[in-house]
Design a protein that fits this description.
The complex is a heterodimer.
Chain A: H1 4-20, E1 54-58, H2 65-78, E2 84-88, H3 90-98, H4 104-120, H5 144-160, H6 162-172, H7 175-180, E3 184-190, H8 199-211, E4 217-220, H9 226-236, E5 246-248, E6 251-255, H10 266-273, E7 277-281, E8 298-302, H11 315-321, H12 325-374
Parallel strand pairs in A: 1-2, 1-7, 2-3, 7-8
Antiparallel strand pairs in A: 3-4, 3-6, 5-6
Helix pairs in contact in A: 2-4, 2-12, 4-6, 5-11
Chain B: H1 7-13, H2 19-41, H3 44-53, H4 55-162, H5 172-185, H6 187-210, E1 220-222, H7 223-233, H8 237-246, H9 253-256, H10 261-276, H11 280-291, E2 302-304, H12 305-332
Antiparallel strand pairs in B: 1-2
The chains are: A alpha/beta, B mainly alpha.
Chain lengths: ~375, ~325
C-alpha cells in the first residue's frame, strides 16, 4: 500500500520537476547544423561527358621535329586520344608514324624509336658537340663559322642517307593501318605540270610561282593506295635540292613547307574533320596560324619557349639539318617541358571552372530543396 | 526598365561560360606572349630584316589580335560571371528571407514553449502539495489504524488471559508480568514504542486492574513480600524454573538486554527457590537488593497494587522496546 513516505517521495520528485523545467538539456538544441559542402552533397548527376575530337597539327622544320616528339611524349602520358592528324614536312613524317598504330600511346613509342634510329644512323659522331656551350634549351651552340664548316657535310649526309630515310619510313609507316585508321593529312607543294612548261624555263617559273605565293596542297592519305601513301609522306618531307621530288597521282610534289600562307595544314581540320580542339605544334617561337584558317576552331598552340634555331644567318639551315642525337634529345626534353607547362595550366583553369559549376549546382539544388520543404511550387 | 531578375529563369537560361572560351582566352594570351618574347630576343639584323620583309608588321598584328581576342573572351567570361553572381545574390536573398521566417517561427515557438514550461512548473508544484497533503492524511490515518490495532491486541491478550484463565497456581504477580510481557512484545508494544507508550500502558494497566473485579490487595505491600509470595505460590519447581526462563533467566544478556528490576528480581527469586531451595523470603530480599538501583531501576520498598502493575507494565514495555531497537540495529548493520 502506498504509504506516507511514498507520497513524500512523489512530492519531492514533483518539486524536482518544477525546479528543472526550463533548463535546456545538454547537447541538443542550439547546436548549429553543419553546413554541407557542395562536394558532400552532389546536387544532380553530372552531365555525361561527350568525348572531344582532338586534332593534331604538326608543323614542318626538319630536325626541329624532335621538339614535336617531346610534346607528344607528354600527351601520351596524359592519355590523350587524337582523332585526326595533319602535318607538313617532318610533321607529316611524324604524323604518319603516329597514325601507323591503333593507339596514340603506341604511336608515340613507335615515333620515338624512329627518331632514335634516324639520329644515331645519320653519321653524326657522338662527341661532335663536346666542349660546345649549351643554350637555354640545352642545345650545343655552334658559332657561324662552325655552322658554315658543317653545312656541306650535313647536306651531303642527308642526300646520301635518302635510302636510310626511305628504309626507316618503310619500317615505321604502316600504309594499311593508315588507310583504315584515323584521318591523316599531309601538306605537299605541287610543282607545275612538266608538259606545260619547257625544261629551261621550269626553274624560273617555279621560283616565280613560289614568290607569287603558291600554296601547298593538303592531301588526305587515307584515300590513297598503299604505295602512294609512302610517296606522299616522303613528298611532304622532300627538301628542295636535297631530296628528290615525289609523284602522287600524276602530280609532282616537294616539301609542303615551301607553300606560302598557312604552313600548318589547319584548313583541313577547319573544313573536313570537324574537330573540337586543335593542338598545333609549332617549331618556331613566333610561328602562327594564318588568320582565318582556323575560324570556329578551338586551338591550343604550343611553341618552343626557347629559341631552337642556332644563332647567326645559317641558323635556320643548321636547325633544319642537324640531327645529332644530343640535339634531338635536348629538343625532345624541351618539348616535354613546354607541353607539361601548357597542359598543366589548362588543367588548372578547367578544374576551377568545373568546381565553380559544381558549387553553383549544389547551391541551386539546396535552394530547390528549401522551396520544396516550404511547399513552394518548384521553379518552372 | 527591365523587371527584377527571376531566380528560376536566370538559373535555367544562362549557361556558364564553357571550356571553349577559356581555352581561346588562354591561347590568345600565350600567342601574344610568345610573339612578344620572340621580338624581344631578336637582334639588330633580324629586326631590320623583319621590318623589310613585313614580318614585323604581321607579328605586331598577330600580337594585337591575340590581346584583343583575350580581352574580348575575358569580357564575355566576366559578363557570364556577373549573371551568375546575380543568381548567387538572389539565392542568398532567398535564403536570408527563409532564415528570417524561421527566426520569427522560432521566436513564436519560444514564447509558447515558455508558457508551457510555466504551466508544467505550476502543475508540478500543485502535485507536490497534493502529495504532501495526501501523505499527511495517510499518515494520520495510519496512526489511527495502529492505535486501533494496539487496542485490539490488548483486548486479544487480555481476553486470552481471561478465557480460559491460565493456571491459577501461577499467582497474580507472575500472570501480570507474563501478560504485560506478551502485550509489550506484540503490535500494542510496537505502537507504544512509536511515542504512544503512555496511552497503551495506561490502557493495559486499567484492563488488568479490572480483571478480576476484586482488587488484588488493598493498601500497600512490601515488594519483597510480594515476590516471596509469588515464588512460594508457584505449584512446583518446574513452574519456578519455567517462570524464570520465561523472564529471560539463563539467556545471554546480549539477547535479553537490560532487564527491569522487578522482572529480574522475580526470575532470580523463582530460580533460587526452585533450583537452590532458598527460602523465598530471603531469596526475594536478596534478589530485590541485587536488582534495584537508582534512576529507572529504583523500586520502592512497598507499592500499591496499581503502582506495582504500572511498574511491571512499564518495565516490560521498556524491555520490549529495547529488544526491538537492538534487532533493528542488527538488521540494518
Amino acid at each position: 500500500m502506498t504509504g506516507a513516505a511514498d507520497f513524500t517521495r512523489l512530492g519531492q520528485k514533483a518539486l524536482e520537476v518544477a525546479g528543472r523545467v526550463g533548463v535546456p538539456e545538454q547537447g541538443t538544441a542550439g547546436e548549429p547544423r553543419a553546413i554541407e559542402s557542395p562536394a558532400a552533397s552532389p546536387a544532380s548527376p553530372p552531365a555525361p561527358r561527350v568525348p572531344l575530337r582532338i586534332g593534331l597539327v604538326l608543323a614542318g622544320g626538319g630536325a626541329k621535329g624532335a621538339y614535336e616528339l617531346g610534346v607528344l611524349d607528354y600527351m601520351a602520358e596524359m592519355g590523350a586520344q587524337v582523332s585526326a592528324i595533319a602535318g607538313t614536312s617532318i610533321g607529316a613524317l611524324n604524323g604518319a608514324v603516329l597514325a601507323s598504330e591503333d593507339s596514340f600511346f603506341q604511336g608515340v613509342r613507335r615515333l620515338a624509336g624512329f627518331w632514335e634510329r634516324f639520329s644515331t644512323r645519320m653519321g653524326v659522331a657522338p662527341s661532335e658537340d663536346r666542349g660546345l656551350p649549351l643554350d637555354a634549351a640545352g642545345v650545343a651552340v655552334e658559332s657561324t663559322a662552325r655552322q658554315l664548316a658543317r653545312l656541306g657535310p650535313r647536306l651531303l649526309a642527308l642526300k646520301r642517307r635518302l635510302s636510310l630515310l626511305e628504309e626507316l619510313v618503310d619500317q615505321a609507316v604502316d600504309p594499311e593501318r593508315i588507310r583504315t585508321g584515323r584521318p591523316l593529312w599531309v601538306a605537299a607543294y605541287p610543282l607545275m605540270d612538266r608538259e606545260a612548261v619547257p625544261e629551261r624555263l621550269r626553274y624560273g617559273v617555279e621560283i616565280a610561282r613560289w614568290l607569287g605565293g603558291a600554296r601547298a596542297t593538303i592531301i588526305r592519305l587515307n584515300d590513297l593506295p598503299a604505295p602512294q601513301i609512302r610517296e606522299a609522306v616522303l613528298a611532304s618531307a622532300a627538301l628542295p635540292f636535297v631530296f628528290p621530288t615525289r609523284v602522287i597521282d600524276g602530280c609532282v610534289y616537294l616539301d609542303g613547307g615551301l607553300g606560302r600562307g598557312d604552313r600548318t595544314p589547319v584548313r583541313a581540320f577547319a573544313e573536313e574533320e570537324h574537330c573540337d580542339v586543335l593542338v598545333v605544334l609549332h617549331l618556331h617561337p613566333d610561328a602562327r596560324v594564318a588568320p582565318g584558317a582556323a575560324t570556329g576552331l578551338v586551338r591550343i598552340d604550343i611553341r618552343p619557349s626557347l629559341p631552337i634555331i642556332p644563332p647567326g644567318p645559317l641558323g635556320p639551315l643548321t636547325g633544319l639539318m642537324s640531327f645529332s642525337p644530343e640535339r634531338v634529345g635536348a629538343l625532345r626534353a624541351l618539348g616535354y617541358r613546354d607541353a607539361a607547362a601548357r597542359f598543366g595550366e589548362i588543367e588548372r583553369v578547367l578544374t576551377r571552372r568545373v568546381a565553380l559549376t559544381g558549387a553553383e549546382s549544389a547551391m541551386l539544388s539546396a535552394l530547390r530543396r528549401l522551396r520544396g520543404d516550404r511547399g513552394d511550387p518548384p521553379p518552372r | 526598365m527591365t523587371g527584377p531578375l527571376n531566380l528560376s529563369e536566370v538559373a535555367r537560361g544562362v549557361p556558364l561560360v564553357d571550356d571553349r572560351l577559356l581555352l581561346e582566352v588562354l591561347n590568345d594570351l600565350h600567342t601574344a606572349d610568345d610573339l612578344v618574347r620572340t621580338t624581344a630576343r631578336e637582334g639588330f639584323f633580324a629586326r631590320l630584316l623583319a621590318q623589310v620583309t613585313g614580318r614585323a608588321r604581321r607579328r605586331d598584328l598577330a600580337v594585337a589580335g591575340g590581346l584583343v581576342g583575350a580581352q574580348r573572351g575575358t569580357l564575355v567570361w566576366l559578363t557570364g560571371l556577373t549573371e551568375r553572381l546575380a543568381v548567387t545574390d538572389l539565392v542568398v536573398a532567398e535564403v536570408t528571407d527563409e532564415v528570417g521566417r524561421i527566426r520569427a517561427e522560432v521566436n513564436r515557438l519560444d514564447t509558447r514553449l515558455r508558457s508551457a514550461e510555466q504551466g508544467i512548473r505550476d502543475l508540478a508544484l500543485i502535485l507536490a502539495e497534493l502529495a504532501e497533503q495526501t501523505g499527511r492524511g495517510l499518515a494520520e490515518h495510519d496512526e489511527r489504524l495502529r492505535k486501533v490495532e494496539a487496542r485490539l491486541a490488548v483486548d486479544d491478550a487480555v481476553r486470552r488471559w481471561r478465557h480460559p484463565r491460565p493456571d491459577p497456581g501461577l499467582g497474580r504477580l507472575p500472570r501480570a508480568v507474563l501478560l504485560a510481557r506478551e502485550v509489550a512484545a506484540g503490535p500494542a508494544g510496537e505502537f507504544a514504542a512509536s511515542g504512544h507508550s503512555g496511552y497503551v500502558e495506561h490502557d493495559l494497566v486499567e484492563r488488568m486492574l479490572q480483571d478480576p473485579p476484586a482488587p488484588w490487595y488493598d493498601g500497600v505491600r512490601s515488594v519483597a513480600g510480594l515476590l516471596a509470595d509469588a515464588a512460594r505460590q508457584l505449584p512446583g519447581d518446574e513452574h519456578r524454573i519455567m517462570l524464570a526462563e520465561l523472564l529471560g533467566e539463563g539467556v545471554h544478556k546480549e539477547l535479553t538486554g537490560e532487564r527491569g528490576p522487578l522482572s529480574s528480581a522475580l526470575s532470580t527469586v523463582a530460580l533460587a527457590t526452585g533450583v537452590e531451595g532458598v527460602d523465598p523470603e530471603a531469596a526475594a530480599k536478596a534478589a530485590l537488593r541485587g536488582a534495584v538501583g537508582s534512576g529507572a531501576r529504583y523500586v520502592a520498598a512497598s507499592l500499591s497494587a496499581e503502582e506495582l502493575l504500572r511498574q511491571i507494565v512499564a518495565e516490560q514495555f521498556a524491555e520490549a522496546a529495547a529488544r526491538r531497537a537492538r534487532l533493528r540495529a542488527r538488521e540494518s548493520a
